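Hi there, hope your week has been kind to you so far. Do you reckon you could talk me through the fold, stretch by stretch? Thanks so much in advance, here it is.
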Amino acid sequence: MIGGVTALASIAGAAVAFLWQALTWLQTSAWVKLSVVAALRWLDAPWARLARDWPEVYALLDAFPLSLALVGLAVLGVVVMKWGSD
């Protein structure tokens, strides 16, 4: 059950993030970079302070698009849902 909810919420979040970027692009003709680090900063998560401690991880998360990360989380949720139902 939790895996299914995680998958649905992640897909919805990925769609919202991508649609927001697309609408902003249509209005301004500039694609807004929305990375995992940008989302962590917005959430004021302690992980957003990785630049000082782990610069390589920070650079990787800053380069990775949020919508793709959420799709990956959705796939993980589906795997957990299928694995937990056996």
The two ends are 13 Å apart (CA to CA). The chain has a mean pLDDT of 87.
